[in-house]
Amino acid sequence: MNASVIARIAKIIPLAVVAAVGVAACGPTNGGASVAASAPASTPAVTSSATPGTGAVPTTPAPAAPTTPAAPTTEAAPPAAAPAAQAPAAPAGTKPAAKAPAKPVSAKPAPAKPAAPKGTQPGGKGVGITFGGLKEGGQIELNDLVSFSVTWKNNDATGTRNVAPVVSTQLYEGAPCSMIAMAEGTLERKDASGWKKLDNLSAGTGMDYVINRKDGAFTLAAGESRTIEYRMRLSSANRPGRITIEADAPVPNSTDYHDMAKAELNAVVVDRHAPEVTGVSASSLKVGTTPAEFGFVVAAPEGTANLHPVVGLSSANWLTPDDVTLEVMAGGAWKPVEVREDCNGLTAVAPTGLDVNRRGDSVEYSFRITMKQAPQFDVDVQVGAEANGHQAARRHAFDPRGRR
Known about the structure:
This protein has 404 residues and is an alpha+beta fold.
């Protein structure tokens, strides 16, 4: 992220939010790992520490014991190896010398075999995760309390699995701030003592949401499962859109998340009180220095009295209000619309009561946009609307890839 981007985010987003995102992004390198999780330097070592207290633990030291005495055995071998070096001069001694090292070499892999039974695999490879109460592609209403369950199962034939249950939403296209893309709302988990509000609903931008977890951790024997109930509420600060709920099985107090089991469920967030954008059209495929017109129709189920059309602009080279001219057709003439910076890029919210085409509870808007200089990258224009605290899902106005 370059200096201009950081400066822009610092202007728009409160320092506390920026700091939180920074911490999230640095999750994998968090120095707060427990000794048990960070001490191992190799995969086998992480394996033994990743499953503390499981049936795999006694198995791990077993091969370690023969490894120590193996050292003297190796040291004793060199005398036999020394004649081997002289073997070229004495062919008769070559055969015994070749047999001597062959025995310790073949003996070394033998003790290593029992060191990696299924129950000692790092992470959660043997853990299966399933959702209940929510269907793939189902709908979630904004502001509704939505209940669902998640089941973790140890699919191994032997051994145990330690699991720190994690549930969260992934980056969300309808989040209030697209720079962070964290859905706004609450998530609760039902424990033995009742419902517990969890710290975060969204996973954020880093991996700290699955690192060094221990809250609600449990152990699963081979073939055993555990089902936990959850409930969440997405606030009306979000816009409708597509959302993914993720469930994970990280090992408690571990920083190794690469092999953990993960399951995803996709859903559609809806708001029956929100306006809806339809009939998007544009005079060209891209935005440039020549005025480009675009239009859309907004249906407002609760009336058009408090309806505001919304236009969002973004680009890879970070636009400013001075880079663009945006106008709306009202009363037969083009009128300028103020564009402001926010955490979504640039946003223009036109006033209500514009002299535009109205058809019952629907309103047709026409805008045009002109860049003052040829943009280095494509400019993404998204259109939407607001009414009575509810927001429409935004749609692309200029999109050569046909995502409208």
